[in-house]
Predict the 3D structure of the following.
Amino acid sequence: MSSTRRGYDLLAPKFDSSPFRTPDGMLDATARALRPLGPFEAGLDLCCGTGAGVERVLRRVCDGPVTGVDFSEGMLAEARRAVPGAEWVRADARALPVRDAFDLAVSFGAFGHFLPHERPALFAQVHDALRPGGLFAFPVAAPPRVGSRPYWTLWGFDAAMRVRNALWHPRFVMYYRRFRLPEVRRDLAAAGFTVTTLALESLGRRPDGSPRCRLVLARRRA
């Protein structure tokens, strides 16, 4: 029943053993897909949590310094212990304290914490943090089939979160079904990115042949 930030401060010591951590398979698939698109120098993990994206992705594909940004001091404390040698910065992703500093930015599992009307400003911040020609990359899983058990699980979670936030303050913002790829592509383009996607083949395909997960590649125009 805490706020989003305080909730993650409390969850941080157990986060890596929770179902909310991005699976290693998705992190490794992202690193494999990014490696041929480099070389990259400085890398940024947006909403880095306990540092898994810095360790399993940025350190594998970046030749220069790597930085994690998160607004939860509890999560950053865990990241500092788990991944020494990286730079860890406490900041709100909607107000990044850097400009023209990174060649690659990644993010994993964080976008449900931003309401749709916040995405344009968020993407504008990432755009400005990248150097001209820099790349913003993040995986997006295919939506579950309508009527399936995962569909109703996500629908139920989002409905419960809406009720909780209507009745209890401060809010805990986390909605799984508000990050839709067509709308995300539109918002990225409006922020000044050229957007493509790449199937993460190692994560498999659905019965209809579509990929289970795509890597969004948003490049800041040079």
Notes: The first strand starts at residue 43 and ends at 46. Residues 149-167 form the longest helix (19 residues). The helical segments are 4-11, 24-34, 52-61, 73-82, 119-129, 149-167, 181-190. The mean pLDDT is 94.
